Amino acid sequence: MNYWLLKTEPGDYGYDDLEADGKVPWDGVRNNQALIFLRQMAEEDAAFIYHSGKQKSIVGTATIESGPYPDPGGQDDKLVVVDITAKKRLPRPVTLAEIKADSALAEFLLVRNSRLSVMPVTAAWWKKLCKMGGL
Q1: Domains plus CATH for the chain?
Q2: Cβ-proximal residues to 70 (8 Å cutoff; 6+ apart), any chain
């Protein structure tokens, strides 16, 4: 199993929406590096959902429900999506400031390239971030 972080603007589509909608395609990814990561996802991988904008925090977890497939709404052949479902809301959001303050997370792409919308999370970071969030 691999671990990921997916960023979203909560005003556009937040964790509440994901919980309400059930299984949804994770679309809208246009950045080449983020698309490379999206193409590496597999069914049953796990992901953090990160609210960007003013919140800047990890708010919940999700399960990847499908491997990547062509974006059904896209007109560009290079765009792909994966299906995801909400799994568990973190009892306490983990803020970007907390993540940046932890030296064990210094190499995490969220710290080094916070604009990237899809990124891998190591198993050790996953465990640490879950603990920080109260799971």
Answers
A1: 3-132 (3.10.590.10)
A2: 77, 79, 80, 81
Single out the residue of 8, 108, 96 nearest to residue 57, CA to CA: 96
Tally DSSP H helices, then E strands, for the chain: 5, 7
**Furthest-apart CA atoms within the chain: distance in Å:** 42
CA dihedral 133, 125, 13, 74 (to 10 degrees): -170
pTM here?
0.94
Non-local (6+) Cβ contacts of 111 within 8 A are: 99, 100, 105
Q: Residues 24-61: pLDDT tens digits?
A: 999 989 999 999 999 999 999 999 999 999 999 999 99
Specify whether the CB–CB gap between 28 and 6 falls below 8 A.
no
Give the pLDDT mean for 103-107.
95
